[in-house]
Structures are given as C-alpha cells and as structure tokens.
Design brief:
The protein has helices at about 1-5, 15-30, 50-55, 100-105, 105-110, 160-165, 170-175, 175-200, 240-250, 285-305, 325-335, 345-355, 365-375, 430-445, 455-465, 475-485; strands spanning about 65-80, 80-90, 90-100, 120-130, 135-145, 205, 210, 225, 230-235, 255-260, 275-280, 310, 315-320, 325, 385-390, 410-415, 420-425, 470-475. By secondary structure, the chain is of the alpha+beta class. The chain has 2 domains: about 1-155, Nucleic acid-binding proteins (OB fold (Dihydrolipoamide Acetyltransferase, E2P)); about 175-320 and about 385-490, Bira Bifunctional Protein, Domain 2 (BirA Bifunctional Protein, domain 2, 2-Layer Sandwich). It has an 8-stranded mixed β-sheet with strand order 6-10-11-18-17-16-15-14, sandwiched between helices. The chain has a 5-stranded mixed beta barrel with strand order 1-2-3-5-4. A 3-stranded antiparallel β-sheet has the order 7-9-8, with no helix packed on it. The two termini are about 35 Å apart. Mean pLDDT is about 95; it is low at about 5-10.
Length: about 500
C-alpha cells in the first residue's frame, strides 16, 4: 500500500478523479475511527534544518533528544512493518521513520497506512542518525493535521511548468524550495531598505491609493468609480505628488513603499501592479539621492547575499563600481552623434534617421535624444551606471539645470540594461511647474495618453513653498530580481497578474 502511495504522483495515466475519490474515502475512514482529518493546533518546537545542524554530531545509530515537528509528507517508502518518509517544513526536508512496534499495530495500520503524499502531520519523536549517516526522526506518535484531497503535481520534486507555477503559487512554493528562498530574500531586501532609511531619520508614511487625479508619472491609470460620491477615481501610478505635499508641510524626510498600478503592457520587467519605494529629502538635490540609491542597493546586497559582487543571469556585476555619464554623452559615445549640438528639431530628426532611431513627430530635440538613448544605449548598460542630464522635455517634474536649461538635474540608475531607479532635484518653482503641466496637456492633445495631467492643488502647494528637495523612486521588484537572479518579474511576485483560463 505504501508503495502505491509513493507512485501515485508519478502515474499520469491514472485518472485524477479516481485518485481524489480514494483520498476522500481515506478521509471518511479517519472520521470513522474518530480521527479528525482536518486537525487542530499542534505545538511545534523544532524545524528540519535546525535539527540537521544541531544533531549532525551523532554517530551512526546514535540517538539524540525528543522533538516536535510538523509539515507535509513529500514521499512515503514502505517496507512492510517499517516505512521511511520525507517531511517538509518551512526550513526544508527531513527523513522520518515509522515503525509498527513503536507506534503499535492500531496506529500503524489504521492511521499511518492511510496517509498520502501531501498530507500534513504533526510528529513527536526521537532524533537519530541512520547507518547511512542521515539525520532522521523516529516517530513515537503523530497527529493528522490536514488530509490532502488532491495528489501533488506529477514529479513533485520539480514543478517546472511556468504557467502552473504562477497561477498556482501555492504548489510552486510547496514543491520548489528555491522559490521559497526567493521570497524569503524578497522580505529581507525590503527589511534592509526600511532599515537603511529609518537609520537616516526618514519617516515612513502612507498616502492614498485612490485619487481624483492620476499624477506623478507618465503612465496609463486604472479607473474605477465611487458610487457614493458619483465620481471616477484612479489607482495611483506614483506616490510622488502626495509625498512632495508632505515636504511642503514640513515633513522633511519621507518615504513610502507600496503598490503602484499602471494599465500598460506586460513582459519580464512589467506587471500591472508592482512595488515601488519613493523617497524625498528636503534641502537636498539629485546628487544626495544618487548616494542614497547606491547605499540602498549595496546594503541590500550585503544583507541578503553577504557581498556586493553578484552574478545575474551568468553576468558578473560589481555593485561597488558605479559609473556616471550624461544621456547625451552616452549616446555620443555609442553613435558618434551629439544631439544637444542641434539648433533645430529638423537637425535632430536628420541625425536620428542617420543612425536608424525611430521617433514621433511630436518629439522635440530632447524627445529624440531620449529615443536615441533607449534605442542605442540602454540595453548596453550592464554594470551599475547613473545616466544624468535628462532633457527637460521628458522630465516635467524635475528642476532645470542651472547651466543648461535644456536638461534637468535628474538621474536614472541602470544595471543589466534595466532601469532600477529614477530621481531628480525636484522642481519647486510653481510658475515653471504650471507651464510644464500646460506643455504636458498639449502633448496629451497631440496623442500622448501617458502625458501628465494638470494638478491645480499641487501648484497651490508649491505656491506656499517647497524647499529644495531631492526625490527618488526605486523599483523594488527589479531590485529583488537582481539580487535573487530571477529572469522575470513574475518570479518575484507571489501572485503575478495572469489572464484567466477559459473553461
């Protein structure tokens, strides 16, 4: 019987409904003998990984202490009056040993023999080391805590189908231990970020997810309707404008980490909802926030991986070796073209055509420069690189550069050809800000659905006075991808957005 239980997960030809029927019969059999198939509280005092480390010193056949451990059965190997099994808890796997003369005939035959792979049990037992040198728990007694009514996926030791993994994350976590590790690292990364900022007197705040205006970024919002007020509301596309209002109010160092929603395309780097952190510091500029960006990324790597030299998708990356170059210089370095030398848009267009850079008619010189950067430079930025000097045309919320009003005091941080962070010296001139909003409205009318909308209240806030301020946004999911060597954003989101399956 035990051998059958071991093989049922490797029998694709067997009808799923039949296997589930058998499991339900076992559930009812447990009820018949007075055992609740969905049990109650069990006091856990020990975990698999800790036990293996603690009792590694044991000699072969030597016993250790008494333990209480709980988890899911992942294998059952029967040998008549004795059976070895594998128990999985949150720390990993450990071998357990069921023996008839220890459990007694009734417990062994009426309960143990009815267990299936996937069942969750609580165990009281004795630690020992087998002749093969494996730390094992000899089961003195056990409780059924939850009967699994579905068999685990075929070849449970390696669920590979990515669609199933993303849609049924509970199965992915259940059978792929490296996935559990990814999400533990995600939590450690978030904790590291918070600790880094808290230690520097930043105040964590919460701002609305629903707003009457979708502002702070160039993105398409999700729209919903509030029935009581009979108004449309937008899920936030950024927290920027709310946080800068707090700086106006006197909270001079603030940050918010939370979900952002953008009604846009999906790929290995984009999901409709994602986690971002935005950070604002009064009396600072973009250079201060560049230092914070470096500090956050380097500290997170140290806290999670113990080093700032990492490997991502087979590529060695040194997080301590950071380059800074302007957008125009990076394009000139890659193509030989100096777009900021152009006096007219026509010159810039001709230059773009020479190097096969597509652009839109609405683009000015700055927009064409940015298009050239995205086409010819961005994906080549493998090692950590700050790109500075973004055109004013594409940076409606950033402060103009004092020496060159065509560009702003802005930066983007790239690793492995991907933008990880974006920051700038915040525009605090309400007159300039209003004019840029008006220019953005013109771009919307010209067909740019992602251009900023007018936010009159934000202008009012600026009129009361926003101190010189540096701001920064970091894509938390992309940082987690980098530090867990994950190729897709879906690998670092517990429940990525998926198109529903048709029945």
């Amino acid at each position: 019987m035990a051998e059958e239980r071991e093989n049922q997960t490797n029998a694709p030809e067997q009808d799923l409904n039949e296997m589930m029927r058998v499991r339900r019969e076992k559930m009812e059999a447990f009820r018949t003998i007075g055992v609740a198939p969905f049990g109650h509280r069990f006091e856990v005092t020990d975990y698999a990984a800790d036990l293996k480390e603690k009792y590694d010193y044991l000699a072969e056949d030597e016993e250790g202490g008494q333990v209480r451990i709980a988890g899911r059965l992942m294998a059952i190997r029967g040998h008549g009056k004795a059976s070895f099994s594998t128990l999985n808890d949150r720390t990993g796997n450990i071998q357990i040993y069921f023996k008839l003369d220890v459990l007694g005939e009734q417990k062994y035959k009426e309960q143990f023999k009815r267990l299936d792979i996937g069942d969750i049990i609580g165990i009281r037992g004795i630690i020992f080391k087998t002749r093969r040198g494996e730390i094992t728990v000899r089961v003195e007694d056990f409780d059924l805590l939850s009967k699994s009514l579905r068999p685990l996926p075929e070849k449970f030791h390696g669920l590979k189908d990515v669609d199933t993994r993303y849609r049924q994350r509970y199965l992915d976590l259940m059978v792929n231990h490296e996935v559990r590790d990814t999400f533990r690292k995600r939590t450690k990364i978030i904790q590291s970020i918070r600790r880094y900022l808290d230690e520097r007197d930043f105040l964590e705040v919460e701002t609305p997810v629903l707003s009457t205006i979708a502002g702070g970024a160039a993105a398409r919002p999700f729209i919903t309707h509030h029935n009581a007020l009979d108004i449309d509301l937008y899920l936030r596309i950024a927290t920027e404008l709310s946080l800068k209002r707090l700086i106006v109010g006197g909270l001079d160092r603030v940050y918010e980490m939370g979900r952002i929603f953008r009604n846009e395309g999906m790929d290995v780097r984009h999901n409709p909802e994602f986690t971002s952190i935005e950070i604002y510091q009064a009396f600072a500029d973009h250079r201060d926030l560049m230092a914070i960006t470096e500090g956050i990324v380097q500290q997170a790597a140290k806290d999670v991986l113990g080093t700032t030299e990492i490997t991502y998708q087979g590529v060695h990356i040194d997080l301590n070796n950071v380059r800074t170059i302007s957008m125009n210089d990076s394009v000139r370095e890659a193509t030989g073209k100096d777009f900021l030398s152009c006096q007219t848009v026509d010159e810039a267009r001709a230059m773009a055509r020479e190097i096969n850079v597509p652009f839109e008619e609405r683009h000015g010189i700055g927009g064409i420069l940015n298009a050239a950067f995205e086409e010819k430079v961005e994906e080549s930025l493998i090692q950590p690189t700050f790109i500075t000097g973004h055109p004013t045309e594409i940076s409606p919320l950033a402060k103009r550069n004092q020496n060159d009003p065509r560009i702003t005091d802005r930066f983007e941080f790239f690793i492995y050809g991907r933008e990880l962070a974006n920051g700038f010296a915040e525009l605090n001139d309400p007159i300039d800000q209003e004019q840029r909003f008006l220019e953005q409205l013109e771009q919307r009318e010209a067909g740019d659905a992602e251009a900023h909308v007018m936010d009159r209240d934000f202008i009012t806030a600026l009129e009361y006075g926003l101190p010189p301020t540096g701001g920064l946004g970091i894509g938390v999911d992309r940082l987690v991808m980098l530090l867990t060597d994950s190729p897709s954003i879906r690998d670092v989101l517990l429940f990525p957005t998926m198109k529903p399956l048709t029945e």
